[in-house]
């Protein structure tokens, strides 16, 4: 399985960066993971950069994190990833001003929560949930 997390902006806070790297290391024990950061700008320019990153990643399935998206449980995410265990998945996280419409139509919209997170927090939560989903599918005791 190949996972791509495509996000606007860098993790500037050292604590968020350390947490993200910890989950990335854990995920890489079970799947290939690539984290792509695109430079922040206005939503239209970010959209161009995100779409280019998606074209480079060539995923089989695309998940776009958006407040308009439907929520899912950790087990539902695990099931989504288990539908094609050898496939490639991309997860897109927008910047502070949201996503352009061109990005929103590039995949399945889903929401991490009914609440809004900073893009840094959203990245850490997403990575933790990806690790949790992989752990569920592997039958480990992480999710109980």
Brief synopsis:
The protein is an alpha/beta fold and 144 residues long. The chain contains five helices and five strands.
Give an overview of the whole structure:
The protein is 44% helix and 24% strand. The protein is globular. Helix 3 (74-82) crosses helix 5 (119-138). Helix 1 links the parallel strand 1 and strand 2 (32-38). Strands 2-1-4-3-5 form a 5-stranded parallel β-sheet, with helices on both faces. It has a single domain (2-138), classed as Alpha/beta knot (3-Layer(aba) Sandwich), CATH 3.40.1280.10. The protein is an alpha/beta fold. The longest helix is centred in the C-terminal third of the chain and has 20 residues, at 119-138.
Features:
24% strand, 144 residues, 5 helices, 5-stranded parallel sheet, single chain, alpha/beta
Using the CA coordinates, give the radius of gyration.
Answer: 14 Å
Envelope shape: globular
Q: What is the ordering of alpha helices and beta strands?
A: EHEHEHEHEH
Looking at how many chains there are and whether they match, the oligomeric state comes to: single chain
The CATH superfamily turns out to be SPOUT methyltransferase, trefoil knot domain
**CATH topology tier name:** Alpha/beta knot
Secondary structure topology:
Elements: E1 2-8, H1 14-28, E2 32-38, H2 43-57, E3 61-71, H3 74-82, E4 88-93, H4 101-104, E5 108-111, H5 119-138
Parallel strand pairs: 1-2, 1-4, 3-4, 3-5
């Amino acid at each position: 399985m190949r996972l791509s997390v495509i996000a606007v902006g860098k993790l500037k806070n050292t604590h968020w960066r350390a947490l993200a790297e910890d989950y990335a290391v854990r995920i890489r024990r079970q799947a290939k993971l690539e984290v792509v950061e695109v430079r922040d700008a206005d939503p239209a320019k970010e959209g161009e950069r995100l779409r280019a990153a998606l074209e480079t990643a060539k995923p089989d399935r695309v998940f776009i994190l958006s407040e308009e998206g439907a929520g899912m449980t950790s087990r539902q995410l695990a099931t989504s990833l288990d539908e094609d265990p050898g496939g490639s998945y991309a997860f897109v996280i927008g910047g502070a001003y949201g996503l352009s419409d061109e990005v929103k139509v590039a995949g399945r919209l889903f929401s991490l929560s009914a609440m809004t997170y900073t893009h840094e927090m959203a990245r850490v939560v997403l990575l933790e949930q990806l690790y949790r989903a992989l752990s569920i599918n592997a039958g480990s005791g992480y999710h109980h």
